[in-house]
Amino acid sequence: MTFIAVVLWAAGFWMTVYGVKYLSHRSKPVLPLSNGLRRRPTVEVTVKNLHLRVETPVLNALHDGLCRVLVLDNHRSLRGFFIKLYDLGSAIGIIGMVAALVLLWGLMVNLFMSALSLQSTSRPSSLVKRAFDQPLEAQPLISGFDDDGMFAVRPIVRLVFKVAGLVSYVATNTRFIDTWALCICQIIHESGHAIAAALRRVPILCSGISLTVVFPSAFVVFPTVRLQMLPLIDRLRILAAGCFHNLVFWCLLYFIAWTGMGTLFRTLVFQDASNLGKVVVGVDSESPLHNHIPPGALVTKLDDTVLAVAVDVPSDDPWGQFLLAPSTPSVHQGWCIDNSALENATALRQDQQLTRITLLEDPSSTEEEVVLWSGPRREIWEQVEVSSLRPRIPFISGRLLRRTSDFVEWIHEADQSLIIPGEHAPATSTGRPSTS
Predict the structure, then answer these.
(1) pLDDT 10s digits, 200-223
(2) Taking Cα atoms as reference points, which of 192, 197, 174, 257 lies closest to residue 421?
(3) Which of 1, 113, 337, 368 is least crowded, fewest Cβ atoms below 10 Å from its Cβ?
(4) Which of 99, 100, 97 is nearest to 244 (CA)?
């Protein structure tokens, strides 16, 4: 899915939303009902510009039950534990906000001093030719800015390219891994507000999700009067609880990575096949190799280069070394074929390359097949995705490990973005502030 396809998909989605809104406004009830007989809908949907908001009071009963449990005498110790825990979260939130403000002021001062030093420099500015074929990191920095130090200022062009690349990746991610990760982190964030409010018996009016253009978010709504009646420390506890939940969840992810639980999952579900070759994870659907190399096949050789690697040498990657090599490796053996096979053959140019891909469609068999590729070897590297791990269970996809790794990484990044103390949004027309 390309970026243009994502834009068209988003445009079609919002056209459908506004079409449904238009048709729902035109439809009228068959029987006239008075306002007293009308029931408030269980799910309320609001659309304004490119903002879609869905709220529901379905979870209110669950939150009310939690409030009743926490005020019982036999749960007094549990309630006291949660109060002290969220007090710690409030203190961490204040410290984090102060540290962020200090860092921001330091960056502003450094930027101001860099601008002054640039203006006071008498040396003439030099023009630098930009090489588009070089990576962005290899291009020279703008003259006059110091690239050293804790608060060094980098050219904003580099940041723009990195952000553009991130947005492009998010937009073209067909499985919406980032969206699911962000939703999970926001649910954890909003549960912190709800649990902290339950400690002081503050009810929630509703909860829900919203969508702005293509970015989702979650929220819970509290009554304004009830919040204003609370002491300052209680309001601070409710406000900082969401960030504290994200911080605890981030520490949990770090602990899982530090203990090596991911390695245990990989060992249980996958087995190392590097001593046999490379396992095909997937082939680009538009590639000519799509119908000839099935997923799960074991590639043993590229030409005469054996892809099997010893287990104790995991850094050796003959797949990438062969396909990305700048020059054709020397071939010590020729090909012997019948003259009849050359009757309808097409002459090859000198710059064309032939590559033999030897593979086993069934890794348990010994019958090898050879796929002959005509073209640059780099295209094989771009169109065929391989791995050194083979699933132990037949119906498990070889992409499961990479998808899981990407999902955990997106959760880690999204959770970090939510560890920022915020504040209640302005009251709505019904006088109900929401945290989102």
Answers:
(1) 999 999 999 999 888 888 999 999
(2) 192
(3) 337
(4) 97
